């Protein structure tokens, strides 16, 4: 069991990195608390596997420290770190039975026969592998093999954490949800720190209590799935989380208004002060399609948009609207009528976010 602390960690695959883009991991400080179920979420190439391999010891970071329970482990080999890693493709011995595969790590640790038997049966039961214990691994399906891979990490009492690197890639879509649920149960039963790498937000939010969202080698937000949805701290979080993502609109600050294409969105005095004090021209507002208010008629707070497209998705509809150069998406309920031709929309103040240099300008909290 371990708390994993990444201290001033950075990694470049280049010999002499010079600029931020030369780093696969840009300097970060992060703590994975003991016993947490975490997802490391982000698009392809953002650095997820690099970070996981640094934690497990397969890769030496170019800068900074990895600490388990306060002790630096940079110089420890992977097998000395007591970390189990489950990869995209199952790593098991095809010529052995399921039982032998699960028992293998324990035999290496010189556990007694009785203890091995107890642990293997316990883990096999949780993973629903009991019936298959005496089947040779080469006769298993891909998802059964992946369950054995996971089981090999779970049998050991000495495991500090289990790292999953896109473990459901090879699994049939209809079995994915079952295995995800299984992982959740395993986490509850064994209370092990688990870090689950994925580029799929649904997988991340069904597995994890907290998601670390990575972008360009940085964790841009670490929080509960709901926080990432309701309060994205970076424009990329707004864009990446949600389907469709947040509407992000470039604006300029004119007095106490955020202005785009002639639309004036009022900001409160405190926000205006915070934005203008950052002295940047890179100002954006963000609002989720779920919170855009779509009306049939105009009022003092609305502006007219052309309705470009309506996508009916069963219990809700996604409308694509255009105002000047700006495309805006709105989500409405299935029974709400779509205005024909022109819709009048407003951006409710309580759901409007302001970003300077891509980072959220935080409201004062009382
Ligand atoms: N062995 C390597 N040598 C050089 N560059 C690498 C190496 N491995 C990864 N990179 C680069 O480091 C960056 C991060 O890659 P990484 O594989 O960690 O991302 P990822 O988020 O896991 O992507 P994916 O989801 O596609 O696996 C990318 O720009 C990638 O091209």
From TrEMBL:
Pfam families listed in its UniProt record: ABC_tran (PF00005), OB_MalK (PF17912)
Q: Which InterPro entries match?
A: AAA+_ATPase, ABC_transporter-like_ATP-bd, ABC_transpr_FbpC, ABC_transpr_MalK/UgpC-like, Mo/tungstate-bd_C_term_dom, NA-bd_OB-fold, OB_MalK-like, P-loop_NTPase
Record's Gene3D superfamilies?
2.40.50.100, Nucleic acid-binding proteins (2.40.50.140), P-loop containing nucleotide triphosphate hydrolases (3.40.50.300)
DNA repair as a keyword?
Answer: no
**Nucleotide-binding as UniProt keyword:** yes
Domain (ABC transporter): residue spans on this chain: 4-241
Instruction: Tell me the keywords, alphabetical order.
Output: ATP-binding, Cell membrane, Membrane, Nucleotide-binding, Transport
| Species the sequence originates in | Sessilibacter corallicola
What PANTHER family does the record point to? ABC TRANSPORTER ATP-BINDING PROTEIN, MALTODEXTRIN IMPORT ATP-BINDING PROTEIN MSMX
UniProt protein name: ABC transporter ATP-binding protein
Q: Name one GO molecular function term.
A: ATP binding
The record, for SUPFAM superfamilies, names: MOP-like, P-loop containing nucleoside triphosphate hydrolases
